[in-house]
Design brief:
Rossmann fold; 5 helices; 9 strands; about 25% helix
């Protein structure tokens, strides 16, 4: 048996930025806003496709789609500019995306965990818009406008985030911490050491 000690994930968090109750309220509010924004189009027979950006958005996405009171289709895509770093590298890699047939004539709502520099979402929006969609909008749980480098703005935003490295509720560092039930600030010594 190894002498290695395993510490609870909470010990790596310097502060809770958004607790479980606040997350529920944010998701419910966004669900109402999205429902109101797309109601007329869906009632007119148009399609709404909600696209989850993997992996960070999956928990937020799962909670959010249950708060949207409209018929909708689900799809998933993987896009990243972070790699294993704490800062965006600017080079966007898209490895999975909805098919052209799925996107054609649909209103597309992209669900993202955090809008930071904007490089990834700017690229994702242009790729999806070029597929014959009726519209492409963006919903993000967290928005960091202080770090924005690309010309992009969320259509639906949960909360503005400070310029700190956040984890939990799907957000990770090195593929860990996604399963925290809250959004917290990762202690710098975790990623600097």
């Amino acid at each position: 048996m190894s002498d290695m000690r395993y510490t609870p994930m909470d010990e790596d968090v310097s502060e809770v930025l958004i607790n479980e109750e606040e997350l529920r309220l944010i998701v419910a509010r966004l669900g109402r806003e999205i429902t109101n924004a797309y109601r007329a189009a869906v009632e007119a027979g148009e399609r709404l496709m909600v696209v989850c950006v993997l992996k960070g958005s999956v928990i937020f996405f799962s909670d959010l789609v249950r708060e949207i009171d409209l018929p909708l289709e689900l799809s998933f895509m993987q896009a990243s500019s972070y790699g294993k770093s704490t800062v965006s590298g600017g080079v966007v890699e898209i490895r999975l995306a909805p098919t052209d047939a799925q996107l054609k004539d649909a209103h597309v709502l992209i669900i993202e965990d955090i809008l930071d520099t904007g490089h990834t979402m700017h690229k994702v929006q242009s790729v999806l818009a070029d597929k014959g969609t009726k519209s492409v909008r963006l919903c993000t749980l967290l928005d960091k406008p202080s770090r924005r480098q690309a010309p992009i703005k969320a259509d639906f935003s949960g909360k503005e985030a400070p310029d700190l490295f956040v984890i939990g509720y799907g957000l990770d560092y090195g593929e860990k911490y996604r399963n925290l039930k809250y959004v917290g600030v990762l202690k710098p010594e975790v990623y600097e050491g």
